[in-house]
Design a protein that fits this description.
- With 319 residues, this protein is of the alpha/beta class.
- It has one domain: Thiamin diphosphate (ThDP)-binding fold, Pyr/PP domains (Rossmann fold), CATH 3.40.50.970.
- Helix content is 46%, strand content 10%.
- The protein has twelve helices and seven strands.
- The strands form two sheets. It has a five-stranded parallel beta sheet with strand order 1-2-3-7-6, with helices on both faces. Strands 4-5 form a two-stranded antiparallel sheet.
- Strand 6, helix 9 and strand 7 form a beta-alpha-beta unit.
- The longest helix has 26 residues.
- The termini are far apart.
- The mean pLDDT is 97.
- Bound molecules: thiamine diphosphate and magnesium ion.
- Magnesium ion (MG) binds next to strand 4.
């Protein structure tokens, strides 16, 4: 890997972190409506995964989607504008936090209903298979989604039809306020995919390079007809499930324990101890990322709201 590539991964993780720290403040000021689920702590998963994709590979995820959008190449200012419900947002201010998408970047969203995007991933992959395109679909979802019917239908069909899908379970230990062991019959998520004959493995979701390497290997097998694969990324969200979560289900010590494995800190130490980049260079990347996000906030705040004339645009039914 070239030095610029190492630094770009760092840049993306820091941009996600700063973007969401700013979003949390804007939410508290009442400038963001609806729900806001932060990805803070999980940045290495999507950054590593998506850095391994080719442009023809599709990406689809759940509602914890701001970081995934950024990794897919959507500029921070369009993400921030979407959070503020502005016309300049990536979904024209209509989607908000949970529904960001840009199919021109092969990013298929942002889905609010737990597990509902898994059958869509099977459909995207079936389309590629049918048309003879060598592409993989990367479908990300939480541990909680593995308890829902969509998951089982989608994984089963993906194996029956040998679909090119990389199923990625982001096991952040909780589905809202429910710990995995309280809701899932098995705590090892891989067992569920194993039941459908799908090959599986697990990675440290706090280590961006480990995620990237695993994804690179798996995606090349999938693209060449290897069929579906299930990857479990062990991770943790440092913030509440969504804004306003009283977090009565976990102790501060548990959060502090995981914060010692902050994916950005781990990667920063790796880059400097391996002599890939100096602390000064990494500081510069952090400052530049902070500046990008500052400008994104200014852009979003200065942008207009969608007008009433747009109400009937992009809908299926004629008014
Ligand atoms: C079908 C459905 N049921 C319930 C909800 C409410 N809900 C939103 S998030 C969530 C927990 C999902 O947990 P997980 O899949 O682990 O994702 P995480 O939030 O941890 O990223 C629930 C139950 C929903 N959005 N959709
Ligand atoms: Mg979860």
């Amino acid at each position: 890997m070239k030095k610029e590539e190492y630094l770009e991964l760092f840049n993306q993780m820091v941009q996600i972190r700063r973007l969401e720290e700013n979003a949390a403040e804007l939410y508290q000021q009442g400038l963001i409506g609806g729900f806001l689920h932060l990805y803070i702590g999980q940045e290495a998963v999507s950054t590593g995964l998506i850095s391994a994709r080719l442009p023809e590979d599709r990406v689809i995820t759940a509602y914890r989607d701001h970081g995934v959008a950024l990794n897919c190449g959507i500029p921070a200012k369009q993400i921030m504008a979407e959070l503020l419900g502005k016309k300049t947002g990536i979904s024209h201010g209509r989607g908000g936090s949970m529904h960001m998408a840009d199919v021109t970047k092969n990013y298929w969203g942002g889905h609010a209903i737990v597990g509902a995007h898994l059958p869509l991933a099977s459909g995207l992959a079936l389309g590629d298979l049918y048309k003879g395109r060598k592409a993989a679909t990367i479908c990300m979802f939480g541990d909680g989604a593995t308890n829902i019917g969509f998951f089982h239908e989608a994984l089963n069909l993906s194996k029956v039809w040998n679909l090119p899908v990389l199923w990625v379970c982001e096991n952040n230990q909780y589905g809202m306020g429910t710990a995995v062991a309280r809701a899932s019959a098995v705590s090892d998520m891989r067992q569920k995919a194993g039941g459908y004959g799908i090959p599986t493995s697990r990675v440290d979701g706090m280590n961006v390079l480990e995620v990237r390497q695993a994804a690179q290997d798996i995606l090349s097998t999938i693209r060449s007809g290897g069929g579906p694969y299930f990857l479990e990324a062990e991770t943790y969200r440092f913030r509440g499930h969504s804004m306003g979560d009283p977090e009565r289900y976990r102790k501060p010590e548990e959060i502090h324990h995981w914060e010692e494995s902050d994916p950005i800190g781990i990667y920063h130490r790796y880059l400097s101890t391996q002599g890939i980049a100096s602390d000064e260079e990494l500081c510069q990347v952090e400052d530049a990322a902070g500046e990008v996000i500052k400008q994104a906030v200014e852009f979003a705040q200065a942008s207009p709201e969608p007008g009433p004339e747009e109400l009937f645009e992009n809908i299926y039914m004629e008014p």
